[in-house]
Amino acid sequence: MKNAPLRPRTTLVSAVVLALALYAAGTAVWYLRLPGFDADYARYLHGSFASRALPAALPLIPATLVLGLVWGGLAHAPAALFRGKFGAPAWAAVTGALLLVGVVALGHLLSVRPGARDLAAQALSARFHDLDGYRVLSRWVLVPLQAAWYLLIVWTAFRVLLAARGRTGRALLAAGAGGVLLAFSLPGGPGSHGPSAEEMAAAPRPNVLIIASDSLRADRLGAYGASRPTSPRFDALSRRGALFENAFTAAGGTLESWATLLSGKYPPSHGLRYKFPSPEALDRFARDPDRLPARFSAAGYRTSVVSDWAGDCFRLADFGFEDTACPDVRRLDAFLSDTLLVHHPLLPLALSGTPLARLIPRLEERAGPLLSPDLLVDSAIDEMERARAEGRPFFSVFFSSVTHLPYAAPAPFAGRFTPADYSGPDRHRLSVSAEDFFFAADPPELGEEEREQIRAVYDSAVLAFDGELGRLLDYLEATGQDSDTIVVVTSDHGDDLFEPGTTLGHGRDFRGGDQGYRVPLLVAGPGVPAGRYAGIVRTADLSGTLLELAGLPGPAGADGRSLVPILAGEESGGRIAYAETTYLLAPPVEPGALAVETDGPALVVEPRLGEYFTLDPRLHDAVIASKLRMVRSDGWKLVRTPLAAGGSIDRLYDVQAETHHEKDVSAEHPEVARELARELEKASSGG
User: What is the pLDDT of residues 363-378, one digit of tens each?
Assistant: First the structure.
């Protein structure tokens, strides 16, 4: 019959079928694209993609069915209206209603998921250069869609109540109630506070909070002379703390650098020399009694680290933390789950923060950036609150990825320093990657205007990190812990931003100046006098410093030394810093430099590490031999480059005479070169 009423079952079945069709399409595209996501995993899996990959997609089916039922339940009211009021054919009424509800629901999700809203607004601005994506999306799109969403919820609830007494109402009741529950199942805020500030005021030992951001350069912060207002909170903190103007990290990779900072040992001593360490190297590091978190744990501190994908090294290596709130992104199962969810974006968008999220492995980790840029700081605050609740001092590390490529600052920081008339592809984040320059036969050619825009995007990310820093400092002040907490602000390494001889990225060489290895280092809190210190210091010095400030014995066999004598005016600084490059599987920058020659994949999957990638052990010696090494004093920088023809070449730079370290002056200052060469050999003799 042409105008027969539309049955709820028709809408529900249609929605479930459509949801399953979308699931099947997304899974098929994922499966076909899977080898392209990671060539090394593709080689490892070769003929077993179906047996290993497809089972990873099965947990998504129950969640898809539930979403389909909710979709159909919410779509039945408008479908019945289209059918009864306008006489639309059943298929057209159902299709139109499902599309309408889908658009309205997407608008609602973007309204309540700030991270996803940021991405959508940035995509709008990138597609339409003259459009303010944030303003258009928030004012003209999401406001009416959000209003329509709540109207739809009320309408559905009303129809459910009317029909609940009838036989057809039962299906509507189940699906509609599910829709209402899903609509209002949103993530909550941090948990309740623990003891009061007064109860914690008598804590005899200081808390320690290390706040860091990946690839954060010192010279892009205001206190270090940045030209843009990138760091108001950092600058204010620097005026009441100890700011070290020339602090250097020991490695260009995150894992190696953090191992140095949290052990006081250079990479040759702690043994983690590259991103893909062997099980044996990880075991040796895990047995090091001087890992800083382990030392503080033994002293009764609650120790924790909070990070996003940038901090996966804390999952790989055992640093001795009691709690490690970081994603695990390097294992095969994590790779499969993460790439799968990329092709089913509505699932993390809709289900995260609801009971249904438990159906899908790693959904909450994947959804974090979509929900809110504040979640990482919230998690760090939760960790400190747990320590307060237990009446224990805390040793906490907060490590953000916001200043790492692609410099994707969230609102309201995204594009903060982008010129109003800019119309290129890098308005809010980079459209190119470091790999485009490392591996491409025809790397991108960028003019100075585009390079300066990339620097502006980086500076917006620095401002975003400053916002994270500010929230953490505000928490300490609000809970009365600011006077009892030693705060350290630093980074694992810096980044290249098109200095002479460089492009993007980090860890490959020492060209362009100090930008890749000079990091911010600010220490503030009890026992730390305010001041600025110009002499060379090392992140390796931080371990002994924090132990001494906390009244604990210093580390044994460390390469670093406590900074307390400098703070006390007993030493002027002027130490020698050592650093080495990391291994990024890329060819060397300099022609004639020693390269790692491979006759197959450089990485192998290690079952003992839960199918993590590790470096092929046959390449270990070649990778170590190919590393560039550097030592830096107050006035000089010596870089040693291994050569393919054998031996190495040392180059000496007068850092007072030039910013970008381009002129080798070793012939003019042979004694300086020899002395620094001895320092380099001493520092690199640990492995």
Answer: 777 666 666 778 899 9
**Are the C-beta atoms of 469 and 234 separated by less than 8 Å?**
yes
Tell me the C-alpha distance between 368 and 353, whole Å: 10
Q: What is the DSSP letter of 432?
A: S
- Torsion from C-alpha of 29, 30, 31, 32, nearest 10 degrees: 50
Q: Which two tokens stand for residue 273?
A: 């020399």
Quick check: 679 and 631 in contact, CB under 8 A? yes
For the chain, helix (H) and strand (E) counts, in that order, are 26, 16
Q: Which residues pair with 251 in a beta bridge?
A: 580
The pTM of the full predicted model, rounded to 2 decimals, is 0.86
* Whole-number Cα distances in Å, 4 to 7, 63, 91, 368, 588: 9, 32, 13, 46, 73
Instruction: Tell me the residue type at 32.
Output: L
- Say if residues 363 and 381 touch (Cβ distance below 8 Å): no
Residue with the larger pLDDT of the pair 121 and 298: 298
Secondary structure of residue 251 in the 3-state scheme = strand
- Where helices occur in 113-248 by DSSP H, the ranges are 114-127, 133-135, 143-163, 169-184, 197-200, 232-238
Q: What integer pLDDT is reported at residue 46 of this predicted model?
A: 62
The H or E element that residue 594 is part of is none
Residue 7: how many other CB atoms lie within 10 Å = 14
Query: Would you give the distance in Å from CA 560 to the centre of its chain?
Result: 27
**Structural domains for the chain:** 8-184 (no CATH), 206-307+400-575 (3.40.720.10), 603-686 (3.30.1120.10)
DSSP helix/strand/coil, 23: helix
Please check whether residue 537 is in contact with residue 497, taking contact to mean a CB–CB distance below 8 angstroms.
no
- In sequence order, what are the residues at sequence separation of 6 or more whose Cβ sits closer than 8 angstroms to the Cβ of residue 431? 126, 406, 425
